[in-house]
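Entry 14. Structure prediction run on the chain below.
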Amino acid sequence: MRMRLGDRSNARNPQLAVAAMLIGMVAIWGGGAFAASDLDGDGYTEAEGDCNDDNDEVFPGAPAQCDLQDNDCDGNLEPDELIDDDLDGWPLCADCADEEAAVNPGASEICDGRDNNCDFLLLPDEDVDVDMDSYPLCDDCNDLAPAIHPGAEEQCNGLDDDCDTWLVLEEVTDVDGDFALACIDCDDYDIDVSPWYGEWELCDGIDNNCDGDVPAWEQDSDGDGFRLCNGDCDDSNPAVWGKDWAAPESNGAPEVCDGIDNNCDGAVDDMFQFDAPNLANDQQNSTGITQFRRVWL
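Output returned:
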């Protein structure tokens, strides 16, 4: 059935009126009105080569964007949009360090002096180094002390020198209560041993001042239990020792007739003397050795 547009007889049949209207619209669109539209307002229609008329950054001749889209509608992506050497999901054109997976536009900025998220910015305190120790403020637990920074050697000073938030146990321990921390006290179980004693040494055979040395006068080389500092006048002879000034009951070694000052009183064989008048009457023993009579004084 043929119908004429505008035929008033169609008004008597609503269905025919709607059909006539649709036919008219098809005729208009088919005539090129749809093909000539520019939906994204970029100045190009699909008929003119716009390969994505929903994106105003995509049209023939558009500048390339690093967005994995064919912005200029030439059917190709840019070469650096297809490269991802570090396999972090970000192409070379967007990744400021495509050789390191931890650096990309989606990474979190950390205190390492690098632009981790490729925004061309560092953390505010990442480029501050007050003490000039090469560690920025954001990483240095004391940016006023150049000896304190990550990686520094821990010192015996009660401070966190290496910025690991820990102190070694010896830096906070003083077992013997001599005010010397265990890390500098060469014997933290003996109150008579401390580096604070300076040059002071006790006569006990111990390194009291922690200087690594026990003086010769404090040693007992002959093993007789006495030292030069407490009455031994000959520390190479175990039969010789004197009165210990720290032990009043000590009288020194027993004096024997041997030509030696056994008890260190300054006299040799002072407890013996030869009976000179009777030398002529002294008898020789069976071995032919003369035996002298000695008189106890």
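The longest helix spans residues 14-33.
Filed with the rest of this week's runs.
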